[in-house]
Hints:
alpha/beta
Amino acid sequence: MSVLDVLRDAGAEFLTATSRQDVAAVVARAVARLADRPDGPAVFADLFPPTRTPPTAAVRRGALVLDRDTAERPDLSVALEVLASQVTFALERVRLTAEIIERHHDRLNTLVEQTSDVILIIDDDDRIRYASPSARVLLGTSALSGASLVDLVDSSERRQAGYLLRYARSIDPRAVAGGSRADWTLRADDGRTVRVEVSCRDLRTDESIRGVVVTLRDVTNQRRLEHELTRRLFRDALTGLPNRLFFDERVSEAIAADLDVTGVLLIDLDNFRAINEALGRETGDAVLQAVAKRLGDAAEDCLIARVGGNEFAVLAANVAGVEIVDELAARLTDAFASPILDSADMLSCTASIGVATTMNAGTAEELLRHADLALDSAKAAGRGNWRRYDPATSTAVGYRLELRTALRQALQDDALLVEYQPIIALGTGHTAGFEALVRWRHPTRGVLSPGEFIDIAEESGLITPIGDWVLATAIRDALEWPRTASNTYPYISINVSVQQFRSSGFVDTVLRLLTETRLPPARLVLEITESLLLRDDDKVWNDLKRLRQWGIRMAIDDFGTGYSALGYLRQVPLDIVKLDRIFISTMATSTRQRELVRGIVQLTRTLGLTVVAEGIETERQRDISMAIGCGYGQGFLFARPMSHEDAVAWTRRANAE
């Protein structure tokens, strides 16, 4: 049963309440259903002032008195606010109805003048015999004697209004109590549209009344508030799409209907985090809004929801077969083929999609779980893919989930290690420095390279603590390296993720480690990626300048693979550019590529930057790198990554040679 169903049921029961105790009983039943604590502490819910003794730790919430556990639950705050509003109006209705019944006809005008509600007495032909003075405020006139009440109702609701009045005259008291209330839209004499709550009571046998008493209460603002609260409860504020709560309820309804095939598609934006970090939240929000519209265009007949920060969901209910769901998945994948924002940058954003259908699931929970597993499978296959849940492939998805859990434990158990790859001066062959590369010593799968777990570290938020550990380990190891053949100590080059660099206190951590270890700042190089520099962020630029003022050198890693723009090299406080291995691997076979790289190298050298060629695996690649002006190189031609002990031995051996 959903929150909305509970509130609707409570509203219907309030309409039948004839006393304060009746209203309190409805509140107690509604809150017990909302709290849903069959095995927990007892739920207490009453009116304020209470009709029974509350517990010591009771809390007041508007017209309600609740036990503290229920009152402080954040997931119930909106629902309790709506319920309290319903209670206020129900109590007022009970009070007013009681006074109408108890007082004689000669005191009716005095009574109704004290309230803003409109009191009407209706004859058997539905014409108004009496209208209280307050009708002037609500309807623009109180001169309503002889007018048809039904004619005052909006034309779209007149049939239901006539039925309600006939229903109120029913000889079955139970029918009168349960069905003689509703909401109507009235057209005021001055043209305004007013939403009123209507209560009808058959007092034709009362000699002082001799008609049907109709009470009209202006609930225009209340209904607007309730609509807004419902929207907040079930809608995503940024995109206007339904949220996860609404989506999950509709999935449950589709499963319960037990018609044809129902499919769920979970959509995760692959590179949204990088976009958000590089270009800022405003651009990220624009991307989410654009994605919402694009999904709506591609899946017009389906329910689309935003169910997480960068995750959307599509419900394809009652379709002819699984192939229809598969076609939808392919269509949604294609929808991300073109740039997501039509800006000067032509910003692109791919998506991974997990698909599940009722062919393999019997409950809503199972269907959603299968879709989540399929999404993990799609992510593992690479960006821009979709996968349908297949029990045979769930093992691979489980492997990724297991790695995510095990990685956190590995950090606690010191199962990570750092290896070092030499960076060579191409002109002399001497070792200039080492790059620190993290590895994971997995208990059953052996030593894992960064490519096997870094993505998981970024997804799980572990990339920053892992990066901090690598930083501290590498700085301490570097202290033990001997002088090189050129009579200098090798520097240590350490990769820093965007998350780690932006984390609070990163610069202070680096400076503290240098102070504690007494490693000269000139021996430390921090490698960052181009995505860190895209956003016009004063903090990032100030941190870069502060690090360089200490003598720490900054390098751009994998230059050429991201949002490469040679122009920004003129403004960024950098010292080293590391050319991505894709440039080096193609120079030997492509003259055009070689000339392109030569131009990049010449520009960087003109700016006073040092160039390191990554991924040198052959002597020809080394020779070409030297010929175009690269001063340093790194790759398997010189050495594979090695342990700290081997790095010490490597340096000593190189000195002896």
